Amino acid sequence: MTPETPQDELLAALQHYLQETDFAHLTSVDQPDLTALFSDLAGLKTEVKAESRQFKATLDSLSDAVETLKADNQALAGELAKANERLQQQRRDVERAMLLEWLDIYDRLDAGYRALQQYRPVDGLFRHSKQQDVRFVASIGEGQEITLKRLEQMLQRRRVFAIDCVGKPFVAQTMTTIAVGNDPTQENAVVLEELRKGFLIEDQVLRLAEVKVNKL
């Protein structure tokens, strides 16, 4: 009996493996259903496309809503700006009317104060009360002067200042001519006298100054 060669040993081992191995289980394993798999994949793809279209439609709707909201906000901001401007204009109109009433009071106080300054007691009449009359009139004048100064301070706190006219060239934007004079010592169109004070509120005319202008 001749010894076995390596080839014989390999053949023997293979034969033994084939005899001992059960190949029946290989045929019993469930094989994947490719048709069902492809069908499921197609359905999933369709669902994904549908979800994508719905998502895009939602984004488009949101984008339109955002644009509408922006337009509404801009319109609202414009309306608020207009309303604020109207409110500010109304406030300016009310303030202007109030200040003009104050100026009317100022004119009356100023006229009274000037009249008191020009007061002179008549000699020979009420000689026994002359000194008392002078003191009384002087005290009234002091009170008028204090009231005028307080009113001027109130006007200044509201940015209202008198227009400086006398001795200055006539300016049509801030003055109106009420009378004409002839003073050869003064230049032509120079204000000789202020007949009623004019006032500015900031840089706007609140009331024109009424003046007497030199005309050569």
Bulk shape = rod-shaped
Determine the strand fraction and express it as a percent band.
5-15%
| Quaternary organization | single chain
Q: What strand line-up does the widest sheet have?
A: 1-4-5
Q: How helical, in percent, are the residues?
A: 55-70%
Number of helix segments?
A: 4
Question: Ranges with pLDDT <50 over ≥5 residues?
Answer: none
* Structural classification: alpha+beta
Q: How many E-type strands? A: 6
Whole-Å distance between the termini? 164 Å
Q: SSE order in H/E notation?
A: HHHHEEEEEE
Which sheet architecture does the biggest sheet show? Answer: 3 strands, antiparallel
Radius of gyration equals 54 Å
Average pLDDT, rounded to a whole number, is 84
Give a description of the structure.
With 216 residues, the protein is an alpha+beta fold. 61% of the residues lie in helices and 13% in strands. It contains 4 helices and 6 strands; from the N terminus they run ααααββββββ. The chain has helices at residues 6-20, 24-28, 34-117, 130-157; strands at 160-162, 175-181, 191-196, 199-201, 204-207, 209-214. A 3-stranded antiparallel sheet has the order 1-4-5. Strands 2-6-3 form a 3-stranded mixed sheet, with no helix packed on it. Strand 4 and strand 5 form a beta hairpin. The model has no long low-confidence stretch (mean pLDDT 84).
